[in-house]
Amino acid sequence: YPSGKLAVLVVREAGRFACIVQEDGASGAALRAVFQSTGRSTCYHPNGAVWIHMDTHGGQYLDQAGNRVRTWTWPNAGVSPGPPVPLSPIFISLNRHVGVRIVGQDKITVSFLAMGQQAKFNVGTRAQGRDVDRPPALAEEQLLLLAFRIRMQQLFDKLRGCLTFPSNEQWDKMKPPTYLSSQALKITQLCRTSDVSEEVHRLVRAIING
Q: The FAM194 C-terminal domain covers which part of the protein (predicted)?
């Protein structure tokens, strides 16, 4: 981003990839989208709610309250419950710099525009069938980095709370912001679906939980 913060990260390992979009927020790098070569992908509303979720069968589009706006199935999805529902092209703006365009299962584009320059990432895939259950290519180092960022945000939030409410009694009553709890949950979910050891999974949980 023009602020110097990381906007889009692509991780490749063993022929698989994951593309991660982070927010340019003052409170830290919140996750806005994760695209996996296994066919699973999720975009999030600014409030942390799921916006778009896709797998090898199709996808769904939801509003910020969690209500389903539309669903679709991919042409090569094979057997699916009910009649196939075609996809109408979708374009969403995750923020003023990053947009996502979905035209087909293998035609999903993340576009980044800032300071007169543009970069595009094709994150579509033809993954189908059993590939949906394969783990995404998220590196251990990246998961740990995301966990440390969340922990730093938690500490900064606690520091702000201490400055705002000097009384120890008030500290005990304070709860972490909802967006931090949501981001922590997303990281632990990524650990479960990534090809990382249980030791790394435990370390990520320990970092987030302090």
A: 1-173
Residue 65 lies in a domain: yes
Task: Give yes or no for a contact between 33 and 43, defined as CB atoms under 8 angstroms apart.
Answer: yes
Other beta carbons less than 10 A from residue 3's beta carbon: 10
Range of the domain at 196: 140-209
Percent of the chain's residues with pLDDT above 70? 77
pLDDT of residue 47: 85
186 C-beta neighbours (distance < 10 Å), count = 18
Q: Assess whether 44 and 113 both reside in one domain.
A: yes
Structural domain count of the chain: 2
Task: From 58, 81, 80, select the one nearest 71 (Cα to Cα).
Answer: 58
Together in a domain, 78 and 152: no
Q: What is the pLDDT of residues 157-203, one digit of tens each?
A: 777 777 776 666 665 566 667 777 777 787 777 777 666 677 777 78
